[in-house]
Amino acid sequence: MKPEEMEAAIIRNLADKTGRAIEEWFAVLKDSGLLEKRDMKKHLKEKHGVGYFQAQTIVKLYLLD
Predict the structure, then answer these.
(1) The pTM is what?
(2) What residues make up the domain containing 47?
(3) Where on the phi/psi map is residue 49: left (φ > 0), alpha (ψ -120 to 50), or beta?
(4) pLDDT tens digit sequence for 36-62
(5) Contact, 13 vs 49, CB < 8 A?
(6) Total domains present in the chain
(7) DSSP for 3-61?
């Protein structure tokens, strides 16, 4: 699977796997007030139980938005 295919699959399955869609995760990050990529990923993983690749993808797309 190519990286872009893997990313698309993560986004597509995000709501089923985490209970929140990508836009909802963007709101979580915005509300957190965190600015550093590392801190955002840590917040998603430790406070919300998001997996490593899911956190990577959410933060990447959030910062592009």
Answers:
(1) 0.93
(2) 3-64
(3) left
(4) 999 999 999 999 999 999 999 999 999
(5) no
(6) 1
(7) HHHHHHHHHHHHHHHHSS-HHHHHHHHHHHT--SHHHHHHHHHHHH---HHHHHHHHHH
